[in-house]
Specification:
- The chain is built from twelve helices and 21 strands.
- It is of the alpha+beta class and 462 residues long.
- It folds into three domains: 242 residues, Beta-lactamase, CATH 3.40.710.10; 108 residues, D-tyrosyl-trna(Tyr) Deacylase, Chain: A (3-Layer(bba) Sandwich); 77 residues, no CATH class.
- The longest helix has 16 residues.
- The radius of gyration is 25 Å and the shape is globular.
C-alpha cells in the first residue's frame, strides 16, 4: 500500500519558500565556518498532512553515511517481519560410532548477523553433548548462501584492522574480530588475553608495563599485525590504564571462520582427523541435521544495527533481503528489493541511490525530503515500535550517548570523512513528535554538531 503523498509532496516541493534557519542554528554554522550550502535540514510533524516547520536544501541528494541503515532496517522489518530469525544448521555425512563421527561435519551459513563466539561455542558444545568426541573427516564451512565478497577491508579508508570494515559472508563468525584484553600483573607486565582462540595464531602472552598516563595506550603498544599468525606488541602498556580491551579485525579475514571453528572445537576437547575448510553441503543428499543455531530475532538484530551502527550486521541484513525476497544473496538483488519496496510506498518519481545497506559508502545518496518521508511513513507503520526503539536515545545510549542532550529524541547518527548527521524523532510537549533530519556534507562536516544540537533544541521547543 502506497503511503499517501499528496499533502506531503506539496509541502516538500516548496523548499524555495521554506523559512530561514533559526538564528541559533545560523550562528552555530557561522562559528563552525560551515556554509549553509553544505547542510541539509528538515523539521516536520510525523503527520504528513501538517506543513513542515523547516526545510533547507531538502531536495538535494546527499551522502547520508550510516543514516542509510534506516532504510535497510525498516524495509527488513516490513518484508521479513520482526520475528524473523537466521538458522545455522550442523549436518553430517557419516554415522557416529563409539564417539567418532565417521565422515565430515558441515556448518551451513544463512547470513546470521550475530553468530558471535559465545553462540558458536554453544553450537559446538551441543555436538559434544551428542557424544561426538572425534570427527574422522573435515569440518566444512558452507558460505554459498551469499556470493563471495571480493572487497578489500582496507579499500574504504585504509583501516583494515577496524572492525567496522569487516566484510559480510554467509557464515560470519564473531564479526571476524578478536578482542584483546590487557590485565596488569604484579612484576611489571600485563597479561594479554585474545578471544576467541584462533587455531594457528600465537598472540603475545604478556606486554611490558610502563609508567605514565594512559593516553594513547593503543598506539603505545606498537602493534605489528604484518604476520597474522604471529602478531607482535613492540611497545608497552601504561599501568595507569588498568584493565582495557581492544577489538581488532583479524589481519587475515578470509581464514577467520576456519580458525575460530577449529580453535573452539579443540578448546572444547574435540579431536579432528581432517581439517576445517570451506566447501558446500552435498546437494540432493538430505543429510541429517545434528544441531541448529538460531539467531536472535530480527527486531533484536535491528536494535544492534541502529543503536551501535554496526556496519557488517547491516550488510548481512541487506544481503538477506536479496537472498529471501530477491534473486540471490548479492548486492544487485538486494538493491532491487529496496528499489521495489521504495516504489511501492513512495512512488517512482525519484529514488535514493542504494549501495550496500550500511552507509559505509561514497556512492549512497538520499535527500532530506526522502528521509523525512521515510520517517513519517515509519511512524504509521505496524513495525514502528521496533524501529523507534532501535534508535539511539539522545545523550543516553548507543552512538548518541555523548551528544549533548538538550532535547528528548531517538536519532540515528551517521559519520564518515566529510559527512556527519542525524535523522529521527524529537519528542515535544503534550506528546507531539517531530521528524528531524540534519546532514552536513563538507570537509568540516563534524563541525556541524553544535548547529545540530541547536536545531534539536529548537525543534523540541516548537
Amino acid at each position: 500500500m502506497r503511503f499517501p503523498l499528496l499533502a506531503l509532496l506539496a509541502a516538500l516541493a516548496g523548499a524555495a519558500t521554506a523559512q530561514a534557519l533559526p538564528p541559533e542554528v545560523d550562528a552555530a554554522l557561522a562559528r563552525a565556518r560551515l556554509p549553509r550550502e553544505a547542510v541539509t535540514f528538515v523539521v516536520a510533524d510525523v503527520d504528513p498532512a501538517r506543513p513542515p516547520r523547516l526545510m533547507h536544501r531538502a531536495q538535494v541528494p546527499v551522502n547520508p553515511a550510516s543514516i542509510a541503515k534506516l532504510t535497510t532496517t525498516l524495509a527488513a522489518l516490513e518484508l521479513l517481519g520482526p520475528a524473523y530469525t537466521w538458522n545455522t544448521p550442523v549436518l553430517a555425512d557419516g554415522p557416529l560410532d563409539g564417539g567418532t563421527l565417521q565422515g565430515n561435519l558441515y556448518l551451513r551459513g544463512s547470513g546470521d548477523p550475530k553468530l558471535v563466539a559465545e553462540r558458536l561455542w554453544l553450537l559446538l558444545r551441543k555436538l559434544r553433548g551428542l557424544g561426538i568426541e572425534r570427527i574422522a573427516g573435515d569440518i566444512v564451512l558452507d558460505q554459498s548462501a551469499f556470493e563471495a565478497a571480493t572487497a578489500d577491508p582496507a579499500a574504504f579508508d585504509g583501516e583494515p584492522l577496524r572492525p567496522y570494515n569487516a566484510t559480510p559472508e554467509a557464515l560470519l563468525v564473531n564479526y571476524k574480530t578478536v578482542m584483546l584484553s590487557f590485565v596488569p600483573q604484579p612484576g611489571g607486565s600485563a597479561r594479554v588475553v585474545a578471544e576467541p582462540a584462533l587455531a594457528g595464531v600465537q598472540w603475545p602472552a604478556t606486554v611490558p608495563v610502563a609508567a605514565g598516563e594512559c593516553g594513547d595506550w593503543r598506539g603505545a603498544l606498537k602493534a605489528d599485525f604484518t604476520d597474522p599468525l604471529r602478531p607482535r606488541l613492540g611497545g608497552a602498556y601504561a599501568a595507569a590504564c588498568g584493565e582495557r580491551a581492544w577489538p581488532v579485525a583479524f589481519a587475515d579475514p578470509a581464514s577467520y571462520a576456519r580458525r575460530a571453528v577449529a580453535g573452539l572445537w579443540l578448546e572444547l576437547g574435540g579431536k579432528l582427523g581432517g581439517q576445517v575448510r570451506d566447501g558446500r553441503v552435498p546437494p540432493g543428499v538430505g543429510l541429517p541435521v545434528l544441531a541448529m543455531a538460531e539467531s536472535p530475532s530480527l527486531a533484536e538484530v535491528v536494535r544492534d544495527v541502529n543503536k551501535y551502527s554496526n556496519n557488517v550486521m547491516a550488510q548481512q541484513l541487506f544481503l538477506t533481503l536479496g537472498l529471501v525476497r530477491g534473486t540471490g544473496g548479492n548486492r544487485d538483488a538486494s538493491r532491487e528489493v529496496l528499489r521495489v519496496w521504495w516504489r511501492e510506498r513512495f512512488g517512482a518519481e525519484s529514488l535514493p541511490v542504494f549501495d550496500n545497506g550500511s552507509g559505509l559508502s561514497r556512492d549512497e545518496r538520499i535527500t532530506g525530503a526522502q528521509l523525512a518521508r521515510l520517517l513519517q511513513y515509519a511512524w504509521a507503520s505496524p513495525v514502528m515500535p521496533e524501529l523507534a526503539a532501535s534508535l539511539p536515545v539522545l545523550g543516553t545510549d548507543g552512538t548518541m550517548r555523548r551528544t549533548r542532550a538538550s532535547a528528548a529524541a531517538h536519532l540515528k547518527s551517521g559519520s564518515l570523512r566529510d559527512v556527519w548527521g542525524v535523522a529521527g524523532y524529537v519528542h515535544g510537549p503534550q506528546g507531539r513528535r517531530l521528524v528531524v533530519v540534519a546532514i552536513a556534507n563538507h570537509a568540516n562536516a563534524a563541525g556541524v554538531r553544535p548547529a545540530v544540537e541547536a536545531l534539536l533544541a529548537w525543534a523540541a521547543r516548537e
